[in-house]
Automatic annotation (TrEMBL):
Protein name in UniProt: Heterokaryon incompatibility domain-containing protein
Superkingdom, natural source: Eukaryota
Pfam families (alphabetical): HET, Het-6_barrel
Location of the Heterokaryon incompatibility domain: 47-212
Length: 647
């Protein structure tokens, strides 16, 4: 579209130099005029950085840059129009204009400076788009009021204290029901409509924004028409409600039928699709951004990748490059937009494992997607020990560096690793221990079986059917119980297993952790066993009211359910040949092997290739070997370690 007189970039040759937008004062409806001026970052004038979602309409909107036409995305065009001062110039920075996107060398060097740009900016202006939602109406302050009132309803809590969190969740749930019965304001009936309108904005799902708000001195969110929100207000609300489990009661309100543009359709690969409403998913993303902001100084680049697995990028290489400013410790990479996606993922993996001396990244490999889509297949030239970061959509058992490590299956030493010259094979020291002997049906497999019913329900009523989800949850428990004990009669007193066997089953069902990713205490293990026994009893089909009134002493049933589902959504229950209970990857099958690798946090399932090597299937929880017991036993017997080669 740009003709001969269009603006042309002059290459930046000086190090640590950026371009800044000096935008002329105009009203919001006037044409956009600005100049682009280079400046050393260290001596740059005061400026504000814009954070926005690019969109797909590249080159559709014209502005005047240094007296010549320049074309840009609609979103940035609207942002520049909105952020102009009417009476004085304003200095801004926006990546699509301030970086020559057509020059991969410049792009790579400027991406290295972006953490410094966003941390040096006086504030970050987040542009969410025009106020087209009717809910905003003529009272912009209503949105802020909704968020602030929600914050006031939240109790103080200690996010590191599982017992305190569970108690606060229970109290909040009961208090909300009591206040509702009394006709008083409560968190269940709070007017969340303005917040929902914000959560539908695509900005919240863009991976680049994590760095942009995490590094900001101050971040403000804007919607055209006068809506201005402090980022920390909405971040603390999302974190508090999700951590306390208080987002669940109003999730159902957010799942009513939406316009096609509001629905993300995920193909299941079996001729059907499940519709995910990004509204409540976005609440989780905001909470994740807040956690990154809090812990980034002590985190590694792998922590950043694990934290942002549900975010999207247009360029797959940005699954790594967009996070380079967030790794406070450990190895990192230099951005290289001339490298292929496969090369970026491979270099990232080698750097994190070999230089970082950590096997955490293996928990993400070969990928962590619950559903595979035909249009996004795993990159063929990636070894199985390299994760395809485009496909991560499930939690992992490996812990974040900033939290106490949960497991030490491979002992507490450093891994012994090497990579072949052609970067195809990863050589690890460890032990091959066991194999799955019996496999239960996973929750994901049950969900796929229910797709026709789910789709018909959404199409006719938009009903998310919590009753259907509850039946599926109980079927899942029954399948695991049957696999473990040969029957599902959990309340038959003649068939109750021994205490340690029951405890092992409970730990395996929850992958040994609670809903806060802490190791289970003995009391929590007992609670999980009681919960499962109760759910599989004769009155298994209970609604929530019955659950609340149950005479069975079950502490914090909501958080117990969360503990069971947190990590097991991406796994399936198994009994191994040696009689251990565990959770293995969804695509595991009989004949796979279970190994522990020296320095590995968790065990792994691998598949023999027949050539003396193995393909990596994924991480596991195997009860009884999560604290280095296998290596200790091998050492006591004088058994040597093996070289396990992954390809």
């Amino acid at each position: 579209m740009a003709g001969e007189d269009a603006y042309e970039y002059t290459a930046i040759t000086a190090p640590k130099t950026i371009r800044l937008i000096h935008i002329s004062p105009e009203t919001e409806t006037d044409p956009v005029h600005f100049s682009l001026e280079t400046s050393p970052l260290e001596s740059a004038p005061d400026f504000e950085a814009i954070s926005y979602c690019w969109g797909n309409d590249q080159g559709q909107h014209q502005v005047v840059c240094n007296g010549k036409p320049l074309f840009m995305h609609k979103s940035l065009f609207e942002a520049l129009s909105y952020f102009r001062f009417p009476d004085k110039p304003r200095v801004l920075w926006a990546d699509a204009v301030c970086i020559n996107q057509a020059d991969p060398i410049e792009k790579s060097s400027q991406v290295l400076l972006m953490p410094h740009i966003y941390s040096q900016a006086s504030r970050v202006l987040v542009w969410l788009g025009a106020a087209v939602d009717p809910v905003f109406g003529s009272v912009p302050s209503h949105t802020n009021l909704t968020i602030l009132q929600g914050l006031q309803m939240l109790p103080g809590f200690d996010p590191e204290n599982a017992a305190d969190m569970a108690a606060k969740t229970q109290i909040m749930s009961y208090d909300a029901l009591r206040l509702r019965a009394e006709g008083k304001p409560n968190i269940l009936d709070h007017d969340w409509a303005p917040l929902v309108a914000l959560l539908r904005r695509p900005w919240f799902r863009r991976k680049w924004v994590v760095q942009e708000v995490a590094l900001a001195k101050e971040a403000l969110l804007y919607v055209g028409g006068g809506v201005e929100i402090q980022w920390l207000d909405i971040a603390r609300l999302a974190f508090g409600m999700e951590t306390l489990g208080l987002d669940k009661p109003w999730r159902l309100k957010l799942e009513e039928p939406k316009l096609d543009s509001d629905i993300e359709k995920t193909d299941t690969g079996k001729g059907g699709s499940i519709e995910f409403r990004p509204v409540f998913i976005t609440f989780h993303l905001i909470s994740a951004m807040y956690m990154v902001q809090i812990y980034r100084h002590d985190a590694t680049l792998v922590d950043g990748v694990m934290s942002t697995k549900f975010f999207d990028c247009t360029d797959p290489r940005d699954h790594v490059f967009s996070l380079l400013g967030l790794g406070g410790v450990g190895p990192t990479l230099r951005p290289d937009y001339e490298a292929s996606v496969s090369d970026v993922f491979r270099r990232f993996s080698i750097s994190m494992m070999i230089e970082g001396k950590s096997l955490k990244l293996l928990s993400l490999a070969p990928d962590r997607s619950l559903f595979h889509t035909p249009e996004v297949q795993r990159l063929e030239d990636l070894p199985t020990w390299v994760p395809d970061l485009r496909l991560m959509r499930a939690d992992v058992m490996a812990s974040f560096t900033v939290r106490p490590q949960a497991f030490f299956a491979g002992g507490q030493g450093k891994p012994v690793l090497s990579v072949s010259d052609d970067e195809r094979f990863l050589h690890c020291q460890g032990l091959l221990l066991d194999s799955p002997q019996r496999l239960a049906t996973s929750l994901v497999e049950m969900l796929l079986e229910d797709i026709p019913e789910i789709r018909n329900s959404f199409e006719t009523t938009g009903d998310p059917s919590p009753e259907r989800r509850e039946r599926r949850f109980i079927r899942w428990l029954e399948s695991a119980y049957q696999t473990a004990f040969g029957h599902d009669r959990a309340c038959d007193p003649d068939l109750v297993p021994e205490l340690e066997v029951a405890n092992s089953f409970s730990r395996a069902m929850s992958c040994g952790t609670d809903f806060l990713r802490n190791r289970l205490s003995p009391e929590q293990v007992t609670t999980i066993w009681n919960f499962i026994q109760w759910k599989l009893g004769p009155d298994a089909n209970k609604d929530e009211a019955t659950e609340r009134d149950s005479t069975i002493e079950l502490n914090y049933s909501s958080t117990t359910r969360d503990s069971l589902l947190l990590l097991s959504m991406g796994t399936k229950f198994c009994v191994t040949e040696s009689g251990r209970f565990g959770q293995v990857p969804l695509n595991s099958k009989l004949g796979d092997r279970i190994c522990v690798l020296v320095g590995g946090e968790v065990p792994f399932a691998v598949r023999p290739t027949g050539n003396g090597t193995y393909t990596l299937i994924g991480e596991c929880y195997i009860d009884g070997i999560m604290d280095g017991e296998a290596l200790q036993e091998a050492a006591s017997r004088g058994m040597p370690l093996e070289t396990i080669i992954l390809e």
